[in-house]
Each structure stands twice: as structure tokens, then as C-alpha cells.
Design goal:
Length: 454
């Protein structure tokens, strides 16, 4: 018998005498966690929290147990609560980093990890740091604000007399189309434009079709456009480059254009590569609305990069997402740029059932009627459905804290949670309706008209 096992048995005996001793239960939970007996540890922490509600150590231990058991939503709820406290524990940020990394949010995961080790250098996790690609060079750069971008990426310095060059994070997506609920028509558009040309290059070349090009996805927020882009990269095992507004826009003249060029050059050096521009309307707004020439120049640079004026975009696959396609400059919709514009609607009934199945995968459930829930969540976006599941989990956790026994999620739990979540798509469709009816040049919004049955 190991020393750890002896200590566990001794603590269990002590708890028989003093079952309401929260510190003893937390200590037992810690030992069970260190022995990888996470299910037993989870019960001890849950019981400790019924005896000492709000105990930070117990919450942290419970979050770690849930993470190791694959109960990611429960773990996320707990660490988010800990991070909101006035003095968050460093390890809460480390667990948060792991959870974000599991969701493919690598930039956010890096930021969370850095916040953790800034609070306590002893919280360093070498394995996680390696997965995040945070080298010792990065750790040194953390102390110098001019070497790190606002979203946690390193700026690699070239010659002293030259400007900083932003080195973007090239990722490998660990999800594919099987992880995306529904959206079959949208997936087929992407297959035809991106996947089939890559898998059947010789056949497509006979018809003069190159590997590359752009797809613009638009629709209500929270309907999975970003997730689908990441899944596209995973489907073809391509490099993935996620570009946000902060990666491009810069207050200094000429910097935005330079950073756009660097993004495309990085993709061209690492083909096949999927570049995903999120909230692209902020980078590709109509030039007729621009008063400042600097902003117009950045848009012109974007168009040049899409056209491959200086370097060809062979093998560079460009996806972009927007909630406001009506704000985009019409030049972006010309052939060779974003020449395929796809409406991404809220999930239909079958897709809603699929999203709920995927979201609840690996969580304790009992006889879930997914079809019934799909009927009761009409017009819900994917994000709305995640919120339903999160609310149901929070209710279950609250119940477990009181009773000390975690119970599976039921259909009734999810129905009750759905009553508290309002579909977030209604406001978007109210705006989209006006554009579809009164500003539908070239039939670009025909899909909205068809979806809304106008």
C-alpha cells in the first residue's frame, strides 16, 4: 500500500468520526485527485461545499476533478465564478486555459495561462505550456508590453531599425464536419469550393479551377460560423489562421496594410492554409462610407491580397464571417474574392437536436428526448442552445451542492432551462428583413427572403 493510499484510508476513518469536517473532506479530495481518482474526489469536494459554501479551495478542486472527468461545462462554470472573485487563484486561470484550449480558443487559452503564472509562477504547467506553444522566449517577452500584442501574441523583432513583424499563430484544428451539428447545405458549399478542389486537384485543373478562393458566411450571431471555419481546416488537415480585428487594425499609418500583407504571406508559406477573418465587415467596410484615407487604404490592400497581385494565393483558402453583410464594400463580392456568399441560418429542428447531442456528449444525462427539445427551441441559435445546456448544468450543480449527490441531466431540466433563454436571432432578422426587401441588388439576400418566407 502506498503512502498516498494509507493517507486516504486514514482520512476516511477520520471522517467517519467527524463527517461534517469540510477541511478534512477537501484534504481527502486533494489526495484523491493526486491519485487520479477523480470521480471520488468530485464527491468529496461537492460534499465539502455543502458544508462550507463558497470555499475557494473546494471549488478549485471540484473544477479540476470535473475537467479530468470530461465534464467541461461544469468545470467552466466553476472557474468562471472563481475568476470573477476579487483575488482569483492562479490555478483557476490554468484550468480555464485548458478548457479554452479544448474548445480551440488558443489565443484566449494563452492569455488565461499567462494571467495564471503572472499571479503565481509556481502554477506553471510545462505540458500545457508546450501545447500552447509558449516558449521561454514568450515568457521573457511577457515582461515587455511592446513585444506582445493586445491578444497575447508575440511580436518577433527583426532588425533594430525596422518595424516589428507580427508572427501569427498557425494552428491545427482538432475538429471536423462531424463535430458540427446540421448545416449540411453550407457544408456542401464549402466542400465544392474548398475541399473537393484540394482532394481532386488534377480533375479541377482540367476545368481551369485552382485550389483556393474565398467564401463569405453571413447570418445571425451565434450560429456557428467561426466553428464551421475551424472544422473546415480540420476536415482537410490544413493549417488554420484565425484573424481578428486587433490582428490587423493599427492606429499608425501603413501598419494595417503591412499586417494584412504579413497574414497572407504567412498563409502562402504554409499551404494548404485556411485563413478565417472574423467580423470581416470591420476590415472590409464600404469605402463610400469612409472619410479617412487610411481606412480606405487598408481596404484596398485587403482587395489586393485577395487578388494575389504580388503573390498567388494557390492553396490559400479564405473564409470570412459577418453578421452585417450589408456593410461590406461591394468590391469584395466580385469573382476571385468572396465569390461564394453563403447564408448561415439558425439550426433547423434536426440540427438543433444534433447540436444538443454534441453539447451533452460526455456529460451525465438520462433519457434525453432530443426531438422534443428541438421542437421547443425553435429559432434558437447554436449559442442559445449552449446557453440552455449551461443553465441546466448550473441548476444541477446547485442541486448537487445542496444534496451532496450529483444527478444526471434530464429532458425536464433542459425544458426548464429553455424557458429562461430567449432566442437571440429575432433582432438580427428584423434588420435583415429590411435589407432583403429594399436593398437586394443582384439577389444577394434571396436566401433571407426564402428563409423568412417574405
Amino acid at each position: 500500500m502506498t503512502a498516498n493510499e494509507e493517507s486516504i484510508n486514514a482520512l476516511r476513518e477520520a471522517l467517519k468520526v467527524s463527517p461534517d469536517n469540510a477541511p478534512l473532506r477537501i484534504h481527502l479530495g486533494d489526495l484523491l485527485n493526486s491519485s487520479a481518482r477523480y470521480d471520488e474526489a468530485e464527491k468529496e469536494y461537492a460534499t465539502a461545499l455543502t458544508l462550507s459554501p463558497g470555499n475557494e479551495t473546494a471549488k478549485l478542486g471540484l473544477a479540476y476533478s470535473c475537467y479530468q472527468l470530461g465534464k467541461y461545462s461544469q468545470a467552466l462554470v466553476i472557474v468562471e465564478d472563481l475568476i470573477k472573485s476579487p483575488a482569483p487563484p492562479a490555478k483557476a486561470y490554468i484550468i480555464h486555459s485548458r478548457l479554452l484550449l479544448n474548445d480551440g480558443e488558443i489565443d484566449k487559452a494563452r492569455k488565461a495561462y499567462n494571467l495564471g503564472i503572472e499571479r503565481d509562477a509556481g502554477a506553471k504547467d510545462s505540458g500545457l505550456q508546450e501545447r500552447l506553444g509558449l516558449t521561454d522566449e514568450f515568457a521573457k517577452a511577457r515582461g515587455s508590453s511592446d513585444k506582445i500584442t493586445t491578444d497575447g501574441k508575440i511580436k518577433a523583432l527583426v532588425e533594430d531599425d525596422e518595424p516589428d513583424t507580427l508572427v501569427l499563430d498557425m494552428e491545427k484544428s482538432d475538429i471536423n464536419f462531424e463535430d458540427v451539428g446540421g448545416m449540411e447545405e453550407v457544408k456542401e458549399h464549402i466542400r465544392m469550393k474548398i475541399i473537393y478542389p484540394l482532394e481532386n486537384q488534377e480533375m479541377f485543373k482540367q476545368y481551369g479551377k485552382k485550389v483556393g478562393g474565398g467564401i463569405l458566411m453571413y447570418g445571425p450571431p451565434g450560429c456557428g460560423k467561426t466553428y464551421l471555419a475551424r472544422a473546415t481546416a480540420g476536415e482537410i488537415k490544413a493549417n488554420f489562421l484565425c484573424v481578428g480585428i486587433s490582428d490587423v487594425l493599427d492606429m499608425y499609418l501603413g501598419e494595417s496594410e503591412r499586417q494584412l500583407h504579413e497574414i497572407f504571406e504567412s498563409a502562402r508559406r504554409n499551404t494548404p492554409c485556411v485563413i478565417f477573418f472574423d467580423e470581416v465587415d470591420a476590415l472590409a467596410a464600404s469605402r463610400s462610407d469612409m472619410r479617412k484615407s487610411g481606412a480606405r487604404q487598408a481596404i484596398n490592400q485587403f482587395l489586393m491580397e485577395l487578388d494575389g497581385v504580388e503573390s498567388p494565393n494557390e492553396g490559400v483558402l479564405i473564409l470570412a464571417a459577418t453578421n452585417a453583410p450589408w456593410h461590406l464594400d461591394s468590391a469584395f463580392r466580385r469573382p476571385g474574392r468572396f465569390d461564394r456568399i453563403i447564408f448561415v441560418p439558425p439550426p433547423d429542428a434536426k440540427a438543433r437536436a444534433d447540436v444538443l447531442r454534441l453539447t451533452l456528449k460526455g456529460k451525465p444525462v438520462e433519457n434525453i428526448d432530443y426531438e422534443l427539445l428541438a421542437k421547443k427551441t425553435e429559432k434558437f441559435s447554436g449559442a442559445d442552445l449552449f446557453a440552455v445546456v449551461d443553465q441546466a448544468i448550473e441548476a444541477k450543480l446547485a442541486q448537487a451542492m445542496k444534496e451532496g449527490i450529483p444527478k444526471p441531466i434530464t429532458t425536464k431540466d433542459l425544458e426548464n432551462a429553455a424557458k429562461n433563454v430567449k432566442p437571440s436571432t429575432a433582432e438580427w432578422f428584423a434588420t435583415a428583413r429590411n435589407y432583403a426587401l429594399y436593398s437586394n441588388q443582384g439577389g444577394v439576400y434571396d436566401d433571407i427572403i426564402k428563409y423568412m418566407k417574405l
